Amino acid sequence: MKRICCAAFLASCLVSSSTAQSAAHPAKTYRNPLLDGREMADPHVIRVDGKYYLYATTDSRGYEVFVSDDLVHWDRKARAFKDPRAGDWAPEVLRYKKDGKYYLYYTDNETTGVHGLSHKQVGVAIADSPLGPFADKSILAFDAIDADPFQDEDGALYLYYVDLEHGFKIVVQPMSDPLTKKGDHRVLIHPTEEWEQRSGRVTEGPFMLKHKGTYYLMYSGTGADSPDYAIGYATSKSPLGPFDKYAGNPVAHRGGKVLGPGHHCVITGPDGKLWLVYHQKWDTTKSFHRFLALDPLWFDDAGVIHTRLSRDEDEPAP
Predict the structure, then answer these.
(1) Count of domains in the chain?
(2) Where are the beta strands (DSSP E) in 72-229?
(3) More exposed terminus of the chain, fewer Cβ within 10 Å: N or C?
(4) Does residue 8 belong to any structural domain of this protein?
(5) Cβ-proximal residues to 52 (8 Å cutoff; 6+ apart), any chain
(6) Dmax of the chain from CA atoms?
(7) Residue 20's pLDDT is what?
(8) Domain presence at residue 2
């Protein structure tokens, strides 16, 4: 009997100790919206020396930069890029392996001519730090938006963007270096599926992700002002294509409280797992009122991308 009582007492002590430790070190969580629900969209995140740097569409007068250790808590720093042309959105930053410098690829509206006509264009700026300041260098494409630079394992560099000349076509432009195009661009995908055409015929926001030798060209479809905005992907064995759209698209879409998820990036979290950083719409109205969100992304054994979207609920943090 004494042994049984002692065993029960020890078990009780272990449970109490475990409970006390859990209370002292509660499980880390996050909740969407991120960044206190600021109006933001089109996020891009890079990781440098253990810290995360976030760039996004904010006030259209260039780009702010935010820094985090965990993808959840973000500190706003100085403005990384100031653009007198305004109309800026969809920034992405590449840390180029060959020179260690940082290249900001931006979209803006350039107003020209006596009639004040404007056109969308993709340009590039350069800095010595992810915090900037970025110095503007050149325009890489006219009638274009949403640039996504990708450096392959062999060092080859490619720029994916949306060509607007004849609709929303995602193209790839081989690059000699971050500032110099090599040859001509080629069209990879355009709107063909029902989900890409629910509110306008749109394929945009490209993001290249490589997994086990396969290139995953992720993108967003239909109008970004719609709650039906969503994310799909196409695959290829070459960064130049041809790409085949996944039959189960879209892999991230509206459902429950989640509305218009899209224009994303994918980054490895401090937990070593992949995370989707993207924006959601506040409500079902046709508008550009959006906030940033974070949710897990993973591949199954067949190489299919999965994600689990959330809003207004506590979720396990990276």
Answers:
(1) 1
(2) 75-76, 81-82, 89-95, 102-112, 117-127, 135-142, 144-151, 157-163, 169-177, 180-181, 186-189, 203-211, 214-221
(3) N
(4) no
(5) 45, 46, 67, 68, 69, 70, 71, 267
(6) 98
(7) 40
(8) no
152-160: long-range contacts, CB 8 A cutoff, minimum separation 24? 152/210, 152/239, 153/210, 155/97, 155/98, 156/239, 157/96, 158/208, 158/239, 158/240, 159/105, 160/188, 160/206, 160/207, 160/208, 160/217
Domain that holds residue 282: 39-316
The pLDDT value recorded for residue 13 is 45
Rounded CA separation 233/253 (Å):
13
Q: Judge whether 133 and 162 are in contact, CB under 8 Å.
A: no
CATH of the domain at 75: 2.115.10.20
Spatial contact of 156 and 173, defined as CB atoms under 8 Å apart = no
* Residue ranges, the chain, pLDDT below 50: 1-25, 113-115
- For residue 56, give the amino acid letter: A
Domain-located, residue 166: yes
**Is residue 28 one of the residues assigned to a domain?**
no
